[in-house]
Amino acid sequence: MVSPSSTLAADAQKYNLQPSEIETLAQKAIEAQSTAYCPYSNFHVGACILTDEGEYIAGANVENASFPVGSCAEQVAFGMAVGAPSRRNVRL
Q1: Most buried in the list 4, 41, 65, 73, measured by CB within 10 Å?
Q2: Active-site pick, 21, 23, 55, 74
């Protein structure tokens, strides 16, 4: 579980999501950490977004030797969402 149930319910209501959606977002972001390319910092970051269609899209940070040219996990996830041929609308 991501947070205590009372906090989870409050967060869900705040962002107009179901508690299960928040838990899925968190779990997929954690799973995305394993795909990070971070040979310099060794700091694995994952992010996940939810589309209007209910699709979860995850991304991970990508470092570059020319710091700070790398991409953060959130940028990668959003890029995957809006750059796809179907161009998805992001919910959260």
Answers
A1: 73
A2: 74
- Active-site residue 31, yes or no? no
Q: What are phi and psi of 54, to 5 degrees?
A: 90, 15
Q: Do residues 55 and 88 make contact, with C-beta atoms less than 8 angstroms apart?
A: yes
Q: Is the peptide bond before 68 cis (omega within 30 degrees of 0)?
A: yes
- Do residues 22 and 16 make contact, with C-beta atoms less than 8 angstroms apart? no
Q: Among all chains, which residue has been given the structure tokens 């899925």? A: 24
Q: Is the pLDDT of residue 5 over 80?
A: no
For the segment 53-80, the average pLDDT, to the nearest whole number, is 90
Strands of 21-80 (E only): list them: 46-50, 56-60
CA distances from 65 to 6, 34, 71, 76, 79 (A): 43, 20, 12, 18, 21
Measured between alpha carbons, how far is residue 41 from residues 33, 34, 49, 77, 87 in Å?
Answer: 13, 14, 24, 20, 32
